[in-house]
Amino acid sequence: MLAIAGGKGGCGKTTTAVGLARGLAALGTRPLVVDADLDMPDLHHRTGVERAPGIAAAVERDPRAVAQPGGRFPEIDVLPCCGADTATAAALFERLGDRHEDSGTPDGPVLLDCPAGASADAAAPLRAADRTVLVSTPRERSLRDVAKTAAMARELDAPPVAVVLVRSEGRVDPSELLGCDAVVHVPELPEPPLETEESAARHLQCAKSVTERNI
Predict the structure, then answer these.
(1) Distance CA 67, CA 77 (A)
(2) CA dist 24 to 83, 91, 93, 207, Å?
(3) What's the pLDDT tens digit per position in 119-175?
(4) What span, in angstroms and rounded, lies between the C-alpha atoms of 205 and 86?
(5) pTM
(6) Total domains, the chain
(7) Does residue 53 have a cis bond before it (omega within 30 degrees)?
(8) What is the pLDDT of residues 61-74, one digit of tens each?
(9) What residues make up the domain containing 204?
(10) Which terminus of the chain is more exposed, N or C, with fewer CB under 10 A?
(11) Tell me, what CATH number does 203's domain have?
């Protein structure tokens, strides 16, 4: 299970979560993207699905059965966070992680679109995840913030497996700072960015990198 995490809001986490899920789908899987950002949920807007059903409805049911086909991106499934509180969400994240570990034939990759920062709400999905994909812009302040996220991810046993730098022309190398040598640069893209060929190519690159690391 992958946590998609960044240091600040607006760095491109949700776009990256959806783009990476689409890349993984292109490799033959059926990803589930879960909105783990209880304070600023945006996944349902970005994908064009309804706000409900969401995490609250999935606590005692099969999350895959509750999830909605991804609206504009039907190759993925989406689980919004509608109606969830911190405890409910944390319980679902843990159950998703246990389900993945216990199944000999997992349903497909699960991606958690995490809150920004280093709060308790941000720690909950990281604690349940196996690895983390870090998201940042190439600006110094954004990189300093995501370095704190990288440290928290390692402390919670979800070490970074890849870094996605958004609005980046490739002139910044954050691999040493973030302790991760798999870096994908996504340039400034026209709106809507997820519907461009360039976005698909860069996120497919990230998906292949993640898959090679057996996540």
Answers:
(1) 6
(2) 28, 25, 20, 5
(3) 778 899 999 999 999 999 999 999 999 999 999 999 999 999 999 999 999 999 999
(4) 33
(5) 0.93
(6) 1
(7) yes
(8) 999 999 999 999 99
(9) 2-212
(10) C
(11) 3.40.50.300
